[in-house]
């Protein structure tokens, strides 16, 4: 099959590689119909995720058709259309029993495109299929459903729920890329009083406005002042970091109110300064996290009922074999206007 293979920092190519097969009785092999590129994939290519070995097939978000299952798989069978979760779960270890699937100790967690071959390929082997793939209703299109593999559960769990967003809150979302936009969409489910989006790029701020942000501000134009003005000097109840650079995290610490929450979503490749000389007295809660995807079934039901806007984030589509072009477009959003790109295999509807 063909797949996008990582060859070290700054290097990847669309290569011929062996087809995946069943290695464990809990595995499923899925033919990929729709796959997307994540900001984490760009972090891998920058060298920010050193655990990824040279020769690994990248990608951890896909929709497709099951073509083969191991003998222990009970919830899906060949021919089923499924969502491939970015997180695999053994279901037996301490963390899985707490629904902290991202911390799985039994061989799961974030493994696809990280520790084992991933989904930016014609086929992908998914470990622990009973908990790691989700049957899809026909009412959810493949290009929409793939948004539920990572970006929406990540934004909802690591940003909105970890940040303890409540009705009436002021929520500042620092970074209006795809994950920040998904945080805006899912924060609205909790009825905050206002959502303020901060970004460097005007097109992304306009996208944030269209998707539900009540106020937008460029990072270079004094977001601290705007947030202070809109909150009578208190600051944001919740500050969501959705970039993964020191400047955005440190901005969150400056705009959050005493007693507020900072929810870090971004993948950080460099250290950020934690100004405890200012924060120690402010009763601020800081959370970090890898998504567990425990909310995927809920989000999938909402999408099936038409209650969750998924398609607005997809700005570009490509045939699967145009993977390298898709990476070029996704990695240059200032020029391309890309939010999320989706690549479709030949069997996609």
Automatic annotation (TrEMBL):
<dbReference type="Pfam" id="PF08240">
    <property type="entry name" value="ADH_N"/>
</dbReference>
<dbReference type="InterPro" id="IPR013149">
    <property type="entry name" value="ADH-like_C"/>
</dbReference>
<protein>
    <submittedName>
        <fullName>Putative NADP-dependent alcohol dehydrogenase</fullName>
    </submittedName>
</protein>
<dbReference type="Pfam" id="PF00107">
    <property type="entry name" value="ADH_zinc_N"/>
</dbReference>
<keyword id="KW-0479">Metal-binding</keyword>
<comment type="similarity">
    <text>Belongs to the zinc-containing alcohol dehydrogenase family.</text>
</comment>
<keyword id="KW-0560">Oxidoreductase</keyword>
<dbReference type="InterPro" id="IPR013154">
    <property type="entry name" value="ADH-like_N"/>
</dbReference>
<dbReference type="InterPro" id="IPR002328">
    <property type="entry name" value="ADH_Zn_CS"/>
</dbReference>
<dbReference type="InterPro" id="IPR036291">
    <property type="entry name" value="NAD(P)-bd_dom_sf"/>
</dbReference>
<dbReference type="InterPro" id="IPR020843">
    <property type="entry name" value="ER"/>
</dbReference>
<keyword id="KW-0862">Zinc</keyword>
<dbReference type="InterPro" id="IPR011032">
    <property type="entry name" value="GroES-like_sf"/>
</dbReference>
<feature type="domain" description="Enoyl reductase (ER)">
    <location>
        <begin position="8"/>
        <end position="343"/>
    </location>
</feature>
<dbReference type="GO" id="GO:0008270">
    <property type="term" value="F:zinc ion binding"/>
</dbReference>
<dbReference type="GO" id="GO:0016491">
    <property type="term" value="F:oxidoreductase activity"/>
</dbReference>
């Amino acid at each position: 099959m063909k797949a996008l293979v990582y060859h070290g920092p700054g290097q990847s190519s669309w290569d011929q590689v062996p087809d995946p097969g069943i290695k464990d009785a809990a595995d499923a092999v899925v033919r990929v119909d729709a796959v997307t590129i994540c900001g984490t994939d760009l972090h891998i290519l920058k060298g920010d995720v050193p655990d990824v070995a040279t020769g690994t097939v990248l990608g951890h978000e896909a929709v497709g058709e099951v073509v083969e299952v191991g003998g222990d798989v009970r919830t899906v069978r060949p021919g089923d259309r499924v969502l491939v979760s970015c997180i695999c779960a053994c279901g037996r270890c301490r963390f899985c029993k707490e629904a902290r699937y991202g911390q799985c100790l039994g061989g799961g967690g974030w493994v696809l495109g990280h520790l084992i071959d991933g989904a930016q390929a014609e086929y992908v082997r998914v470990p622990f299929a009973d908990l790691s793939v989700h049957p899809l209703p026909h009412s959810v299109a493949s290009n929409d459903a793939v948004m539920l593999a990572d970006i929406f559960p990540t934004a909802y769990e690591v940003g909105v729920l970890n940040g303890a967003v409540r009705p009436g809150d002021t929520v500042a979302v620092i970074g209006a890329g795809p994950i920040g936009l998904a945080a805006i969409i899912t924060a609205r489910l909790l009825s905050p009083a206002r959502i303020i989006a901060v970004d460097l790029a005007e097109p992304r701020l306009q996208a944030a406005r269209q998707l539900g942000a009540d106020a937008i501000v460029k990072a270079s134009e004094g977001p601290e002042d705007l947030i202070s003005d809109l909150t009578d000097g208190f600051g944001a109840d919740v500050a969501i970091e959705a970039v993964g650079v020191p400047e955005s995290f440190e901005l969150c610490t400056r705009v959050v109110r005493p007693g507020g929450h900072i929810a870090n979503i971004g993948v950080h490749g460099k250290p950020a300064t934690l100004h405890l000389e200012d924060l120690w007295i402010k009763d601020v809660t800081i959370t970090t996290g890898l998504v567990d995807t425990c909310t995927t079934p809920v989000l999938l039901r909402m999408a099936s009922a038409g209650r969750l806007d998924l398609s607005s984030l997809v700005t570009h589509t490509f045939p699967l074999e145009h993977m390298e072009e898709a990476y070029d477009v996704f990695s240059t959003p200032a020029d391309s206007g890309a939010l999320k790109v989706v690549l479709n295999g030949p069997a996609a509807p």
